[in-house]
Every structure is written in C-alpha cells, then in structure tokens.
Amino acid sequence: MAEAEEQPMEKTLSAPAMAEPARPSRLARIRQSDLWYSFRSHRSAVIAAALLALIVVTAFLAPLITPQNPYDLASLELWNAEIPPIWNAEGQWPFILGTDTQGRDILSAILYGSRISLIIGFASVVLALIVGLALGLIAGFFGGWADNVIMRFGDVLLSMPFILIAILISAIATASLPTGLKDILAAPILIVAIAVPSWVQYARTVRASAMVESRKEYVQAARLIRVKAWRIMLHHILPNCMTPIMVAATLNFGLAILSEATLSFLGVGMPPDQPSLGTLIRIGNQYLFSGLWWIVVFPSIQLCLIVLSVNMIGDWLRDALNPKLR
C-alpha cells in the first residue's frame, strides 16, 4: 500500500519539473526590451512618433478622407477658386484650409502631396542604404584597390554640394527622356537623384565597422573553415554595423524629404499635375504677396512637421543606442 501511494506522488512532483517554461512572444520581448523602455520614457520621442504616425495614416488614407482628388481635373471647379480657410468670414465647407487659384482643396492637396513626399523620401533612403551597405562592406572587407576605388569616388561626391548633384542628375535625366515619359518617371528620377549623393555616408560608416570586425577572431575562424565571403559579410559583419546605420538612416529620411521639396521648389522635381509638398510650396509662393497666403503657409507647416518629427525620433534613437549614455 505504501508503494502504491508513493507512485502517484512521484508523478505529480516530476510533472512540473519536466515542463518547459513558455517562450515569450516577440511582442512581449519588445515590450520588455531596454529600447522600448527608453522610448516610453522619452516624452518628445513619443509625441514625435504619434505625430508622424498621424501624418502617414492620413496621407495614405487621403482618398477616403479628402473632399476631392486634386489630381482629377474634372473634379475641380473654378468658381470655388481662392476660397480662404473655413474660419474666415468668406470660408466655405468642406474646404477647411481654403482652395487655390484652380479650385483645388488645399487640405486634399497637402495629404496627397505628403504621400508623394514620404514615398520618395523613404525610397531614396532605402536605395542609398542598399548601395552604401554593399559598397561599404566590399571596401572594408576586401580592402586594396576595391577600397581605394570606392572611397575615392565617394570623396569626389562629397566634394560637391549635395543639392547640385541632385539637380544635375534630375536635369540630365529629364532632358534625355521623351516628353511623354517625363511626368511618368518624375518620381523615380527624384529617388535616384537624392540617393546618388547619399550612399557615401552609409558606405563610410559600414567600411569603418567592417575593417574592425574583419580582424576579429570569429571572422578569421570563418575564413579558416572556408566560409564564403558574402556569407561572412552578411551574417557576421553586417549585424554588428547596424546600430549607427539605423540612426543615420532615420536622420537622412527627414533630409531626403527636405531635398525632394527643395528640388520640386526649384522646378526640377514633381510636375504640377502630381504635386508634392515642394511643388505646392512653389506654386503658392507665386501668390504669397497677392493675399492668398494659405496656399503656401499650410504646405510649409506640413513639411516642417514631418521633418521635425523625423529628426526628433532620430535624436532619441541616437541617444538610446549610444552605449556611453547608458
């Protein structure tokens, strides 16, 4: 009887000991991370992220929340032109921020233009990041003539003004295309024009990290067992270079949006029938001294809010990933 009573007791005692603890989900690990705690405790970063999220959501949901499509010329009515904002005595609903000289709703144009500016800025950063990472890894890992060629070409780009290179690329590409393709390929041309002078910063950062990591023992061991070079660069060296790259990409996102607005303001960016924020500012600047101040003021405020929120997030990320400040 005593043996019979001991057996179930042993089973009940051994069952919990054999059970493995449940692995936390990815969302739970993110909530428990130091980066998430730093973000929650940084009030300006939270406000900037909420503002940027609101701008992105409203920009991409513009067809659902705006009273008109500013790209559809058939929906524009000239008798609705030059209407001031809604709080003015002459304001009309639903034109909350007023209309321009063609009867285009300013709020609708801002939301559609923000979507174009965000897409061009993000795509140019991604393109510059891919090119810079690839060339920086090659220069830092192999060294020699590859390093000299890549870095000297980067030095040539750095010796020229950023905006001058972008204007030159955009002007040459636009002049060499047929008339029917200029407006269609305006956005890809802008992406390339902004990305070409931007990849050097990523390449220099990755090259410095790759030169340090390639001399460490784990990379030397991988070379001894004949691991392929591309596998060492992607799986061993690149993950150790991502911290400064993430900070640089975040800060350059705001710079890319500002560069697109500058190019469009100078007339070598997006066309008037596909207005970005820079194009709206350029068009509104022509009527600034005629009393139609709202055409240029509200797109300028939207551009400032986007760049400010991105820069605030980039500043927080730089401080959060800096080990010297921990």
UniProtKB/TrEMBL annotation:
GO terms for biological process: transmembrane transport. This is ABC transporter permease. Its main location: membrane. The keyword Transmembrane helix applies. It holds the Pfam family OppC_N. Keywords: Cell membrane, Membrane, Transmembrane, Transmembrane helix, Transport. Residues 1-20 are annotated as: Disordered. Belongs to the binding-protein-dependent transport system permease family. CDD domains: TM_PBP2. GO terms for cellular component: plasma membrane. It is found in: Cell membrane. The chain crosses the membrane at residues 45-65, 116-144, 156-178, 184-202, 241-267, 287-308. Residues 114-314 form the ABC transmembrane type-1 domain. It comes from the Bacteria. It is a multi-pass membrane protein.
